[in-house]
Amino acid sequence: MLPHFGETRTAFERDHAFVAPDGQVPTPLPAWRDAAPVVLISPQMGARFSHYLVAADGGAIGGSPLPGIERFVFVLEGEADLEAEGDRQTLDHYSYAFVPADLPHRVHLADGCRLTVFERRFVPLAGAEAPGLVVGNEAALRGDPFLGDEALTVRKLLPDTEAFDMAVNTMTFEPGTPLPFVETHVMEHGLLMLEGGGIYRLNERWYPIGEGDVVWMGPYCPQWFGALGKEPAKYLLYKENRRDPIAHFGGS
Ligand code: UGY
Ligand code: MN
């Protein structure tokens, strides 16, 4: 067998990061008991949110995040139970839950469960109601054409209302379908490739991307994707939503 030559697809730049599974290292987190979380995107990078994976080998329990932090959980494999508001509901493949900031809850992972989590500090909006608990399944949602393209569908996992300061969507590309233009916008993204793959352009670099790869796109990072291969490509996408950039930065 050849020795390891120190190569990786992982890259970290000022305005983006590409995180391939080969370099991932578990980071014990106080809120997750008996689990092996891997922090993929964090404020240490310059992001204003966290994105991590949690795997349970034999079961694990997640407690509430820090005060003021909202959480979005998406099940990749196996099952997890969400305990909140006096109820316990099972989340299976591609099920998800949004838990508003300061709502006490627990996430019980069954043996073999893998889930991914986005967390951020909630930014309230004067005059808007606070967001509530949301539970759903991606597979049950209708896909809408993205900017009129029937070969590219978007599914909005959260209500697109002023109550929510974040959006989480899936984008599904038929083979050979690209994003229609190179987007450059103030909202940041976290992305997890769920199925298929292609080429992701981030600023001046082009990355081959496949299932399990993660991307951080900082504000104004030029971004474009084209799907390759014979199967559709699908990614899970976090995006800031419906808040003034000054409010996000805490400026005046
Ligand atoms: O909605 C979006 O910003 C999305 N189209 N961006 C992306 O896929 N990189
Ligand atoms: Mn975008």
Describe the structure.
It is globular, with a radius of gyration of 18 Å. The strands form four sheets. Strands 1-2-20-17-22-16-15-14 form an eight-stranded antiparallel beta sheet, with no helix packed on it. A six-stranded antiparallel beta sheet has the order 4-5-12-7-10-13, with no helix packed on it. It has a five-stranded antiparallel beta sheet with strand order 3-6-11-8-9, with no helix packed on it. It has one helix spanning 245-249; strands at residues 11-12, 16-19, 32-33, 38-41, 50-55, 60-62, 69-77, 80-84, 87-91, 95-99, 105-109, 114-121, 134-137, 144-146, 149-156, 166-173, 189-195, 197-202, 205-209, 214-217, 223-228, 233-240. 2% of the residues lie in helices and 46% in strands. With 252 residues, it is mainly beta. The chain contains one helix and 22 strands. The N and C termini lie far apart (59 Å). It binds (2S)-amino(carbamoylamino)ethanoic acid and manganese (II) ion. Manganese (II) ion is lined by residues 183, 185, 189, 223.
Brief write-up:
The protein has 252 residues and is mostly beta strands. It has one helix and 22 strands.
Strand content: over 45%
Report the helical percentage. under 10%
What is the approximate shape? Answer: globular
How far apart the termini lie comes to: 59 Å
Tally of DSSP helical segments:
1
Show unreliable segments: none
**Cofactors, ions, other ligands:** (2S)-amino(carbamoylamino)ethanoic acid, manganese (II) ion
Based on secondary structure, the structural category is: mainly beta
Average pLDDT for all residues: 96
Please provide the count of β strands.
22
Give, in order, the helices and strands: EEEEEEEEEEEEEEEEEEEEEEH
Taking the sheet with the most strands, its summary is: 8 strands, antiparallel
Radius of gyration, CA atoms, in whole angstroms: 18 Å
> Going across the major beta sheet, what is the strand order?
1-2-20-17-22-16-15-14
